Each structure stands twice: as structure tokens, then as C-alpha cells.
């Protein structure tokens, strides 16, 4: 028995040194002659199968040293179509051996004995091929040697010649008595075709390797693929396997895709274990990945594409799509393992701004997007990444606001007075918040408009919560002084105006909390002034007041208070100053309506003159400080005129002026003023009735047009005394 044949992994090859004794059902035993055996040995030698087996083992060892990824369906597909063609001989009669098992030996069996055939029975062998039918050789080299030495075009021409020869012999019914001989020779041709296809894949894998690009090899590869497509334009109608298209163009595209995936995965595999350690490791991995892809694509566009261009191969588009798919697959794997706000943003930023940049390839004349490519990440993965990022972002922004509050509290604890920059009290609060918002919004805007809008909403919501916490923490601290209050008013007003202007519509809900905080800080400022000046009001409208200038200390405190307002934003400073002006006039009127001592005769006239002088001093002082609340200047003079009027009939005129100027005055306030004058029962009743008519008219006008925010007497508690009661009676 002949020894078993050796073959490359996955392929059973006939040995050129041991002729195959194939068996087929016949009526009687017949042994092959020595001439026929010599003929079969000669056919195998022409194909160079011994060399071919060595070539197949070397194909996978090129470039990276790894075994090539061959198509496992090639041999199975070859065998299927081969024996299908054997079942349909040219004359339409059943092929010899049609009911028998395939002539190609299965794995694990002796390749010399066909299943179902008794041992020792030899089938008839094919007639010896004449010398005129021998295929031409390139300088005496076998097909396997030509493939090994990458003379691909010469190897293809020899294989095509052998293919045409076998087809002709089959058509001439040469193998009717020896179908297994035809099968063996056809399989030899097919295996060499497969080897040539494997060599094409090896060339593709080596193209972007460290040895550089071989333009001649790439050009020959392209010509071989084109030549095969011309030789096999379509599947034959009779199903002849030999003339079936080899689809090397598809194999070439698959090899490009595998090469891109291998090179991309090599970059990611080296640091995959370090990605979980932090965003910096992920950023370094992505930077290396980008550099590797950039180098490969630059080489493809500048060196590989020109080599393929002569044969019309779309090398750039094929490589571009292959690398795009490989990068997308790798990025999706990284996205699945990404954790934390920084890692998620690093992935989103790299996909949107680094890989998606028109300058990704590093040169203006090189561009990645010559045609639309599918999204690097699927919409579902991208949406999940953005959702995870915003979830982490909410926590991060909240913690950033916590840090800002802690910094402010440390300044309060250190009793550090706020600086005065450009004439205003300054705290870093506004700058810190502006930088925090701008940084995250800008970063999100670089990814997508949707993520930017989401980040704005997160910032607005977090800032609204922060303002309330900040307000409460500050008012509970020991740093509530005029400078700190002024600095915080400035910060809140800057946030209110600048954020609304810079991000219109995004911080609308933040306006009310900021305005409320400003009002509270202004109120606390006024409370400090009230504590300082309240004792000064207690000596007003006393006999000591008639002879002393007790108003000056009060005005001095007001002036000192106003100096702090000079370092506050003008709008807020004006509002606060007007409130201080209104407070002084209101408290003065409250003291005048319930004096500690009663004045009669000359003392009443002196008190009237004194009130006029005080009103002038108060008006001049606040006017000098810049108060625009001039409507307050008529209150004290009107009451002084009523007290000092010598013509009682003119008192009604002064009372009318007072009611017209201050429609918020009430009947009780009029009674208190009349009680100071002591005009008598009938005149008091007449004036009171007239005042009530004026008040009703003023109330109707106030409901129609509003009071314009001018409130004075409404906040003055009307006195209840016996004099007021007598004036009422």
C-alpha cells in the first residue's frame, strides 16, 4: 500500500513523488501500467505540488509571523462544485462513478482508497498526455514556485492554461473512464488557485507592515485580480467548477478588512488593562490609536492607492471603510467599559472632535470624508454615552458648587475683607461660577448641540440650588458686614445679568432666586443702618430737639453707610440708597405723629420751623448722595406747614397736598396730624370729612393706575392716644 500523503493544514494534496492509485467500480480488476503511472507523476510534477505544499506553509508565516486567516469554505465549496460538475458529463449521460462517494479523500482516511471500493482494485487511469499538451513554464518554474516568488501573473497564466486544458479534455470525454483522475487534476488546479488567493491576502497583510509598500507587488496583484475577472466573468451555465469565478476581489477586500482590524486591535490591546485606571490612560490609548490609524491611512493615500490606481482598484475607499469599521468596533468596546465623567467625555470628544475632524489625517490635501461614512458609534451607543455622561456630570457639577461654597466659607472664617476692583467690592464667587458653567457648556457644545443644551439645564438647576445654600450659609456666618454684603450683591447681579445675556433662555428660571438673594442682602444692609441710627430718632420731637441739632449724628451715619454703596453695582446701590432715604423719612414721620412731648403755642410754631429745617437737611443730604427718591421730600414739610399754619382755613390746602402726594395715607394718620394741631371739634370734623373724600378719590386712582411703588404712610403705625380720640370726636 502506498504511504499516506502530506498536505498543508486544512488541505489534502497529492504527493508528486508517490502516484495516486485511485479506485473506481469496474467489472474486473485492472492494474495501472507503468506508462500510466509515469504520466500521472509527470502531471503532478508540472504543478509542483511538493513545492506548493511548502509554499502554503510559508504563506501564513509572512509579515506578522502568524497563520493567515484563510476562507474555510474555499475547499468545501471547491469540492461541492467539482463533483456537481462531474455528475453532468458533456453527453448528458450519468458520469462514471456517479453513485459512488466523492473522489477526494476525507480527512483521516487513506487518500489512495475511495470509500465503497474494495482494496486492491485499481480504477482505470487517464490516458497519458502528449507533449503537445504540456503547459508553458516561466523559466522552468512550477506554479507553486511562481506563487512563492510572487510572480502572480505568470502563475495565473499557467493555471489558466491548465484549466482550459482540463475543460477541453472533459469536453472531449477523455475522462469518461477515469473520473477520479479528472477530479485529482481539477482539485490540484483549484488548490493552486486557492494558494494564489492566499498569497494575495498575505500581500495585503504585509502592505502596511514595517517593511514598507512594494508598488510592483501591489500592481501585479491588481492585474491578477482583473485578469481572473476577465477569465471568469460569471458562473457557467453547466455548473463547471473550474470556470467558476474565484472572487479574488472580494478576498482582497476581506483581507484589507482583516488587516485593518488586526492593526487597530494591536494598538488597543497593549493598554486595555490600564483603561480602567483613569481618563488619562484612556486618552493616551485613543491618542495612540489615532496616530496609528493616521499613519496607516496616510500611507494608503500616498503610497498604496497610486500602486492600485493603474488597475482601477478603489484602494482608498476600501481601506477607509475598513479602518472606519475597525475603529468603530474598538471604540464601542471602550465605550462599554468606560466609567466616570472624564472617561465618557474623553470618548465623546475623541469621536466628535479628533476622529471627526476634517484635519484628522494631518494635511489639508488629505481628507477622511470623501464620501459619507456611517456613524462611528451607533445612535443607540451614542445616546447611552451622552446619558451616562450627563448623569455623572450632574454629580460633578454639584460637587464643584460644593467646593466653591467651601472656598467662600474659608474666606469668611479668615475674616478676609473683600477686595475693591475697579471701584467695586469683589468676591471670586461670580468668576468661579462663570468659569464652571462656561467650561462645561463649551466642552458639551464641542460634542453636540443637544449635549450643550442638557449641560445648560444641569448648570442652571445646580446653580439655583447653590444660590439658596450660599445665601443661608452666609447669613448664618459672622462675616455679615457691609463690604461682604456689597460684594455678594455685586456677584449675584453679575450672574443674573451676564448669564442671561450669554445663554438666553437657559437661565430664565435662575433669575428669581438671584433677585431674591439680592433683595435679602440689601435688606440686611438696611438692617445694619437701622440698628445704627435708631437711637437718633428717639430724641426727635422733644424739647431738647427744639434747641439742639440732634439730626446731624443721624445724617453722619447715613453718609458713612452710603460710602459702602459706592462700591456696589449702581442699580443695586440706587435701590438701597432710596430704601435708606425712605426709611429715614418714614421714621421721622413716625416720631412726629407720636411725639414724646406736646407742644402748644410758641413751641408748636418752633417745632414747625424745626421740622422744615430737618426736612431740608434730609433732602439735601440724600440728594447729595445721589438718591432719586425726590417724592419723599414733601412729607415732612406738609406736616410742618399744618402745625405752623396761622390761618386755619389754609390748613385744608396743606392737607390736600399731603393726601395727593401720598395716597397711601389713612384716616388714622390724618387724625394724628389734626390732634397735633388742636383745631377744635367742628373744624376737625370738617377737615376729616374732606380728607375722607380725598382718600376715596385717591384710592380709586390708585387702583386704576397704581401707586408706582411709593409707599410711606402705609408702613407707619398710626398712634392711639387720648388726643387722637378727642380729635376724632
Architecture overview:
By secondary structure, the protein is mainly alpha-helical. The chain is built from 25 helices and two strands. The protein is rod-shaped, with a radius of gyration of 51 Å. It folds into four domains: 171 residues, no CATH class; 99 residues; 137 residues, Tetracycline Repressor, domain 2; 191 residues, Orthogonal Bundle (Tetracycline Repressor, domain 2). The N terminus is likely disordered. Helix content is 63%, strand content 1%. Strands 1-2 form a two-stranded antiparallel ribbon.
Shape: rod-shaped
The first-to-last residue Cα distance is: 147 Å
User: How would you spell out the order of helices and strands?
Assistant: HHHHHHHHHHHHEEHHHHHHHHHHHHH
**Percent of residues in β-strands:** under 5%
The name of the CATH superfamily of the largest domain reads Exocyst complex component Sec6, C-terminal domain
How many alpha or pi helices? 25
Radius of gyration equals: 51 Å
Q: How would you name the oligomeric state of the polypeptide chains in this document?
A: single chain
Stretches where pLDDT falls below 50 for ≥5 residues? 1-56, 58-138
Q: Fraction of residues in helices? A: 55-70%
CATH top-level class of the largest domain = Mainly Alpha
CATH architecture of the largest domain: Orthogonal Bundle
Amino acid at each position: 500500500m502506498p504511504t499516506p500523503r502530506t498536505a498543508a493544514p486544512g488541505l489534502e494534496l497529492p504527493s508528486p513523488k508517490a502516484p495516486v492509485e485511485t479506485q473506481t467500480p469496474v467489472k474486473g480488476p485492472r492494474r495501472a501500467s507503468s506508462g500510466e503511472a509515469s504520466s500521472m507523476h509527470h502531471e503532478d510534477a508540472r504543478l509542483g505540488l511538493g513545492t506548493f505544499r511548502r509554499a502554503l506553509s510559508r504563506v501564513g508565516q509572512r509579515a506578522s509571523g502568524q497563520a493567515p486567516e484563510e476562507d474555510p469554505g474555499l475547499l468545501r465549496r471547491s469540492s461541492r462544485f467539482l463533483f456537481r460538475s462531474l455528475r453532468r458529463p458533456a453527453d448528458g449521460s450519468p458520469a462514471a462513478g456517479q453513485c459512488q462517494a466523492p473522489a477526494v479523500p476525507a480527512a483521516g482516511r487513506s487518500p489512495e482508497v475511495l470509500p465503497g471500493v474494495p482494496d486492491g482494485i485499481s480504477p482505470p487511469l487517464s490516458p497519458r498526455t502528449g507533449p503537445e499538451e504540456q503547459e508553458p513554464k516561466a523559466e522552468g518554474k512550477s506554479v507553486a514556485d511562481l506563487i512563492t516568488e510572487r510572480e502572480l501573473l505568470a502563475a495565473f497564466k499557467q493555471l489558466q492554461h491548465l484549466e482550459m486544458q482540463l475543460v477541453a479534455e472533459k469536453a472531449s470525454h477523455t475522462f469518461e473512464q477515469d473520473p477520479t483522475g479528472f477530479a485529482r487534476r481539477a482539485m490540484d488546479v483549484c488548490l493552486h488557485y486557492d494558494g494564489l488567493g492566499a498569497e494575495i491576502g498575505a500581500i495585503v497583510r504585509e502592505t502596511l507592515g514595517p517593511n514598507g509598500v512594494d508598488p510592483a507587488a501591489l500592481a501585479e496583484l491588481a492585474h491578477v485580480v482583473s485578469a481572473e475577472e476577465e477569465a471568469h466573468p460569471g458562473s457557467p451555465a453547466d455548473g463547471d467548477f473550474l470556470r467558476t469565478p474565484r472572487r479574488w476581489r472580494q478576498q482582497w477586500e476581506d483581507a484589507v478588512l482583516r488587516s485593518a482590524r488586526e492593526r487597530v486591535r494591536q494598538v488597543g490591546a497593549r493598554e486595555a488593562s490600564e483603561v480602567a485606571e483613569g481618563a488619562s490612560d484612556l486618552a493616551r490609548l485613543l491618542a495612540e490609536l489615532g496616530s496609528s490609524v493616521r499613519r496607516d491611512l496616510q500611507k494608503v493615500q500616498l503610497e498604496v492607492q497610486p500602486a492600485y490606481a493603474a488597475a482601477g482598484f478603489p484602494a482608498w475607499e476600501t481601506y477607509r471603510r475598513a479602518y472606519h469599521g475597525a475603529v468603530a468596533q474598538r471604540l464601542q468596546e471602550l465605550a462599554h467599559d468606560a466609567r466616570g465623567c472624564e472617561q465618557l467625555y474623553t470618548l465623546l470628544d475623541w469621536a466628535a472632535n479628533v476622529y471627526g475632524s476634517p484635519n484628522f489625517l494631518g494635511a489639508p490635501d488629505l481628507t477622511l470624508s470623501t464620501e459619507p461614512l456611517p456613524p462611528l458609534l451607533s445612535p443607540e451607543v451614542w445616546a447611552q454615552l451622552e446619558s451616562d455622561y450627563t448623569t455623572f456630570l450632574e454629580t460633578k457639577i454639584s460637587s464643584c458648587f460644593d467646593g466653591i461654597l467651601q472656598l467662600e466659607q474659608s474666606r469668611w472664617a479668615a475674616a478676609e475683607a473683600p477686595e475693591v476692583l475697579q471701584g467695586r467690592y469683589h468676591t471670586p464667587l461670580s468668576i468661579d461660577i462663570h468659569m464652571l458653567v462656561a467650561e462645561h457648556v463649551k466642552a458639551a457644545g464641542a460634542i453636540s448641540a443637544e449635549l450643550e443644551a442638557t449641560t445648560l439645564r444641569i448648570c442652571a438647576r445646580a446653580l439655583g440650588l447653590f444660590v439658596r445654600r450660599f445665601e443661608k450659609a452666609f447669613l448664618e456666618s459672622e462675616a455679615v458686614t457691609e463690604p461682604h454684603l456689597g460684594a455678594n450683591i455685586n456677584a449675584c447681579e453679575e450672574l443674573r445679568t451676564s448669564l442671561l445675556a450669554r445663554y438666553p433662555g437657559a437661565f430664565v428660571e435662575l433669575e428669581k432666586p438671584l433677585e431674591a438673594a439680592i433683595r435679602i442682602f440689601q435688606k440686611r444692609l438696611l438692617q445694619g443702618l437701622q440698628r445704627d441710627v435708631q437711637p437718633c430718632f428717639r430724641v426727635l420731637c422733644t424739647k431738647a430737639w427744639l434747641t439742639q441739632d440732634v439730626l446731624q449724628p443721624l445724617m453722619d451715619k447715613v453718609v458713612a453707610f452710603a460710602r459702602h454703596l459706592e462700591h456696589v453695582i449702581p442699580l443695586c446701590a440706587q435701590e438701597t440708597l432710596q430704601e435708606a432715604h425712605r426709611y429715614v423719612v418714614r421714621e421721622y414721620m413716625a416720631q412726629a405723629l407720636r411725639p414724646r412731648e406736646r407742644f402748644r403755642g410758641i413751641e408748636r410754631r418752633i417745632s414747625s420751623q424745626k421740622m422744615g429745617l430737618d426736612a431740608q437737611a434730609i433732602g439735601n443730604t440724600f440728594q447729595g448722595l445721589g438718591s432719586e427718591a425726590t417724592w419723599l421730600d414733601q412729607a415732612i414739610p406738609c406736616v410742618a406747614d399744618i402745625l405752623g399754619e396761622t390761618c386755619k382755613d389754609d390748613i385744608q390746602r396743606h392737607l390736600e397736598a399731603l393726601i395727593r402726594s401720598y395716597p397711601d395715607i389713612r384716616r388714622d394718620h390724618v387724625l394724628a396730624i389734626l390732634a397735633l394741631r388742636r383745631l377744635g371739634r367742628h373744624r376737625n370734623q370738617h377737615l376729616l370729612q374732606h380728607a375722607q373724600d380725598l382718600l376715596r378719590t385717591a384710592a380709586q386712582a390708585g387702583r386704576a393706575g397704581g401707586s408706582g411703588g411709593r409707599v410711606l404712610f402705609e408702613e407707619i403705625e398710626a398712634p392711639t392716644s387720648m388726643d387722637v380720640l378727642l380729635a376724632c370726636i
